[in-house]
Write a structure and sequence with these properties.
The complex is a heterodimer of chains A (249) and B (309). Chain A has a single domain (2-245), classed as Rossmann fold (3-Layer(aba) Sandwich), CATH 3.40.50.620. In chain A, the strands form 2 sheets. A 9-stranded mixed sheet of chain A has the order 9-8-7-10-6-1-4-5-11, sandwiched between helices. Chain A has a two-stranded antiparallel ribbon with strand order 2-3. In chain A, β7 (138-149) and β8 (152-159) form a beta hairpin. Chain A has helices spanning 37-51, 69-78, 94-108, 127-135, 188-194, 204-207, 235-244; strands at 2-7, 9-11, 33-35, 57-64, 82-87, 112-116, 138-149, 152-159, 162-169, 172-176, 199-203, 215-221, 230-232. Chain A is globular and about 65 Å long. By secondary structure, chain A is of the alpha/beta class. Chain B is of the alpha/beta class and 309 residues long. Chain B has 2 domains: 2-166, Rossmann fold (3-Layer(aba) Sandwich), CATH 3.40.50.620; 196-308, TPP-binding domain (Rossmann fold). Chain B is built from 8 helices and 16 strands. Chain B has helices spanning 17-28, 42-50, 70-81, 93-105, 210-220, 228-232, 263-269, 298-308; strands at residues 2-6, 31-38, 56-61, 86-90, 110-114, 116-119, 122-127, 132-138, 143-147, 163-166, 176-183, 196-200, 223-226, 253-257, 274-279, 292-295. Chain B has a 7-stranded parallel sheet, sandwiched between helices. In chain B, strands 13-12-14-15-16 form a 5-stranded parallel sheet. A 3-stranded antiparallel sheet of chain B has the order 6-7-8. Chain B starts with a strand and ends with a helix. Classes of the chains: A alpha/beta (249), B alpha/beta (309). Chains A and B meet through α3, α4, β7, β8 and β9 of A and α3, α4, β5, β7 and β8 of B. β13 of chain A pairs parallel with β16 (292-295) of chain B, so a sheet runs across the interface. Chain A: Belongs to the ETF beta-subunit/FixA family. Chain A: Pfam families: ETF (PF01012).
Chain lengths: 249, 309
């Protein structure tokens, strides 16, 4: 079966971001960019399903600037078969991204779409659910286990109280949580091979999708800094301070 | 302006996060209605009707809503929500799962995990794991919002006497079904609602050593959490994870034990009132946010603390 994996180019998770002086956003000039960690897990899951013989073709898609081709090439090196970039310079909202992905889903007709549960830049945690709504498909979000059998997929989900398992009719949408798998590293021969794999570039206009948004970011600020307190010398001093100074125990 | 708040519940008990969500609704202003979608959730509806400031409780009772499957409850919420100015849900795993689906059905952008209400259309929310705070304005006719509980003090659970009204709307998409769940059972307070949280990290070395934290937690009436490193190492289950992608907590007292203080973890606890760090590495970044730091071997310090506290 055909699988579609959506990936996002984001600031690398090791980078400590800084807010711009004019409060218009976060300074991304000369900052290392990578594939969103949850998206890496999505790619890995699809590749494993292909290795098991469940997936026959993996199409990887990204919505973003032309530089997102780097992340698509990474996904190709990890085992995806071909890539699609829907090029967009603007900062799109999750709904706009979901609409563009829906157009790609309509074209490609995958049986399973795997996405990361959230991007570590906007921290929205919306796109997979929105794509499921627009497609009318079932959704298995925050997945820690994905098992396909026949025309359905069983997804074990990480929920507040523990774990929940749902069964979804295919086609379906899955979003990944941290413990679904541990992504591999791309080998050098595979990185070289990935350069020859097909990568199509489309635009929102070509897909006939409006990316208008109802949200506007007014400003971006640094959070209130928390200053370091004091070091205590002993457990006795700590307990005394918590009881009499902070009055929290 | 009327606001629809989605009740968080398990068909038996109304979850406390609902009270924080109602508090956010009260800050926006206007009448507040609460939707209880579930099966046999009469006790939840009664509890919701008693919440201070709630004008009406809508109850949608249907087998299809029993497990909060988004394929079934999102169409219900989109249908009912069409008459409201705002739809609010707690940013719990249910709220995060369901509400974007509602927003997409209503063709509006969602605003995730707000931590403050600036006005009826403008909200603040953390981005980049809390390293930046965005102020977001929405011009959507219906504003769909999830609420981070730690940003709002809960309203009183008692004092209201809202009318309870049954809703007939039935939606069953037939695309998903509930198979089962494994929920952790604990006599300790719930992590996100506890006044004191004791969390362990990689420094705990193994799962068995968490018994030291449980002993201290029981002495303090605290909940027990963990860093991602401790969860990834398999010491404890994932529902104990505090951090950007785990639970967000803001207790009166947060005691971080053997936790280095990765950005990812700080994002989940830095709004705690008082932070204590106990770590044998005095260079650990956690000390930069701690009100009280103790450089010590946790295996000596924690049992001693349990005796003294």
């Amino acid at each position: 079966m055909k699988m579609l994996v959506a990936v996002k180019r984001v600031v690398d998770y090791n980078v400590k971001v800084r807010v711009k002086a004019d409060n218009s956003g976060v300074d991304l000039a000369n900052v290392k960019m990578s594939m969103n960690p949850f998206c890496e897990i999505a790619v890995e899951e699809a590749v494993r399903l292909k290795e098991k013989g469940v997936a026959t073709e993996i199409v990887v898609v990204s919505i973003g600037p032309s530089t997102a081709q780097e992340q698509l090439r990474t996904a190709l090196a990890l085992g995806a078969d071909r890539a699609i970039l829907v090029e967009s310079a603007e900062d799109l909202t999750s709904l706009a991204v979901a609409k563009l992905l829906k157009a790609v889903v309509d074209k490609e007709q995958p049986q399973l779409v795997i996405l990361g549960k959230q991007a570590i830049d906007s921290d929205n945690n919306q796109t997979g659910q929105m794509l499921a709504a627009l497609s009318g498909y079932g959704q298995g979000t925050f997945a820690s286990k994905v098992e396909i059998s026949g025309d359905s997929v069983a997804v074990t989900r990480e929920v507040d109280g523990g774990a929940q398992t749902v069964s979804l009719k295919l086609p379906a949408i899955v979003t990944t949580d941290l413990r679904l798998n541990e992504p591999r590293y791309a080998s050098l021969p595979n990185i070289m091979k990935a350069k020859k794999k097909p990568l199509d570039v489309l635009t929102a206009d070509a897909l006939g999708v409006s990316t208008a948004s109802t949200n506007k970011t007014v400003k971006v600020e640094a959070p209130a800094a928390r200053s370091a307190g004091i070091k205590v010398k002993s457990v006795a001093e700590l307990v005394e301070k918590l009881k009499n100074e902070a009055k929290v125990i | 302006m009327t606001i629809l708040v989605i009740a968080e519940h398990d068909n038996k008990v109304l979850a406390p996060a609902t009270l924080n969500t109602v508090a956010a609704a009260a800050k926006i202003g206007g009448d507040i209605h609460v939707l209880v979608a579930g099966q046999g959730a009469g006790a939840v509806a009664e509890a919701a009707a008693k919440i201070a400031g709630v004008a009406k409780v809508l109850v949608a009772d249907n087998a299809a809503y029993a497990h909060q499957l988004p394929e079934n409850v999102a169409p219900l919420m989109a249908e009912l929500g069409a008459g409201y100015s705002h739809i609010l849900a707690a940013a719990t795993s249910n709220g995060k799962n369901i509400l974007p689906r509602v927003a997409a059905q209503l063709d509006v952008d969602q605003i995730s995990e707000i931590i403050s209400v600036e006005s009826a259309d403008t909200f603040k929310r953390p981005i980049y794991a809390g390293n930046a705070i965005a102020t977001v304005q929405s011009n959507a006719a219906i504003k769909v919002i999830t609420v981070r509980a730690t940003g709002f003090d809960p309203v009183a659970a008692e004092g209201g006497s809202a009318a309870v009204e049954a809703v007939a709307a039935a939606h069953n998409a037939g695309t998903s079904s509930f198979v089962g769940e494994e929920l952790a059972k604990s006599d300790r307070p719930e992590l996100t609602a506890a006044k004191i949280v004791v969390s362990g990290g990689r420094g705990m070395q193994n799962g068995d050593n968490f018994k030291h934290l449980y002993a201290l937690a029981d002495k303090l009436g605290a909940a027990v959490g963990a860093s991602r490193a401790a969860v990834d190492a398999g010491f404890v289950p994932n529902d104990m994870q505090v951090g950007q992608t785990g639970k967000i907590v803001a207790p009166q007292l947060y005691i971080a034990v053997g936790i280095s203080g990765a950005i990812q973890h700080l994002a989940g606890m830095k709004d705690s009132k008082v932070i204590v760090a106990i770590n044998k590495d005095e260079e650990a970044p956690i000390f930069q946010v701690a009100d009280y730091g103790l450089v010590a071997d946790l295996f000596e310090a924690i049992p001693e603390m349990a005796t003294l506290a």
